[in-house]
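User: Fold this; tokens only.

Assistant: Input:
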Amino acid sequence: MSNKPRYQQIKQFIVDGIQQGTYPQGAKIPTEVELASQFNVSRMTVNKAIRDLVQDQRLVRYAGLGTFVTAAKAESPLLEIRNIADEVRQRGHRYSSTLVTLEQTLADDEVALQMGAPIGTPVFHSIIVHLEDQLPIQLEQRYVMASLVPGYLDQDFNALTPNEYLSRILPVSSIEHIVEAVLATKEAQKLLQIDAATPCILVNRRTWSDQRLVSFARLTHPGPRYKLRALTSL
């Protein structure tokens, strides 16, 4: 018999269940009453084990619903641009995407301001949902200078991402990121499969190549599924 305190044995039981797939991401674990009966301990002992795992961000509690295994958040570096498809695959997960819109349009007031171009300038516009293991993690709405990237509309963005394509033909020389906390629009809620109350992270990204502004993108991430990381040397 293990010499570990009983609450630690319960913690290990739950962690083993998560690692072995008995309790996958999003799964509800047994109730405190069920675990107390299984391990022949008090609910207080079970509660301590669960509280520790909540603090470790392995579990999350929802009042009136129960305790669930947390979903690992996708993570992107804030101070650089990386291909989201590569990020997902490096985590050992399956990347896929859904192309919503791919068109040529004319820059309206806001897009013209962001692109530093006259109103009415021809731009390419794409909307793509990026998924990790079939779960939407990013809604990308992008505008690209048509004069700089004439082949944009000819690309198969189910086979490669706009970021991957643009980086090949116009290597990025500088970027600008503006990060906001927002609630998703109704369209974004539908595409990201979230409800109106879900907080989101919006990254407004502009990219330049050889001092030419190439692209302006709005990248909307469901807050519970995503985080941004910045690392600097002092």
